[in-house]
Amino acid sequence: MTDKKPKSVFKQGAISSEFIGESIAKHQTKTSIGAHNIFLGQVRADVIDGKAVAAIEYTAYEDMANQKFSEIREATFDKFELTCMHIYHSLGIVKAGEICLFVFVSSPRRKVVFEALEYIVEEIKAHVPVFGKEIFEDDSHQWKVNN
């Protein structure tokens, strides 16, 4: 038996509102679902040392990151009664104001989706090797502190 490679969660560039809307619309036929919850991570135009962040360039150890995303997914399904879960993360340049992380969970019950979503996002921040380089308006850059 061979080990199956985890599905990639990465999308090049920003995650569009059209993609998010289509993802939600696909669940209308799943009538056992009673609740959805969504987390959208958006690039902030933070001001650091007097310079505004214009974009973040995301990179990752993709195989390792996809494995971690898969582990988080499995642990979440073991811990919570979810019907579906979708995770997408950007790679490449995402401008301030654009979406870089999209997490979408569904369950028969509403309380579960709140608890599961918080768990997933915290696990991603703590364990997934995705890195962001902040690009400032003057084209200088620095590695982002993950907080």
From TrEMBL:
One MF term in GO for this entry? molybdopterin synthase activity
Q: What organism does the UniProt record list as the source?
A: Mariniflexile fucanivorans
Instruction: Name the chemical reaction catalysed here.
Output: 2 [molybdopterin-synthase sulfur-carrier protein]-C-terminal-Gly-aminoethanethioate + cyclic pyranopterin phosphate + H2O = molybdopterin + 2 [molybdopterin-synthase sulfur-carrier protein]-C-terminal Gly-Gly + 2 H(+)
User: Keywords of this protein's UniProt record, alphabetized?
Assistant: Molybdenum cofactor biosynthesis
UniProt keyword Thylakoid present: no
Q: Which family does it belong to?
A: Belongs to the MoaE family.
The protein's matches in PANTHER family, at most eight in alphabetical order, are given as:
MOLYBDOPTERIN SYNTHASE RELATED
Top class in the EC scheme? transferase
Q: Does the keyword Transmembrane apply?
A: no
Q: How does it assemble?
A: Heterotetramer of 2 MoaD subunits and 2 MoaE subunits. Also stable as homodimer. The enzyme changes between these two forms during catalysis.
Where would you find the membrane-spanning parts of this chain? none
Q: What is the protein's given name?
A: Molybdopterin synthase catalytic subunit
Give the Pfam families listed for this entry: MoaE
Q: Its GO biological process terms? A: Mo-molybdopterin cofactor biosynthetic process
EC number of this enzyme = 2.8.1.12
Q: Pathway it acts in?
A: Cofactor biosynthesis; molybdopterin biosynthesis
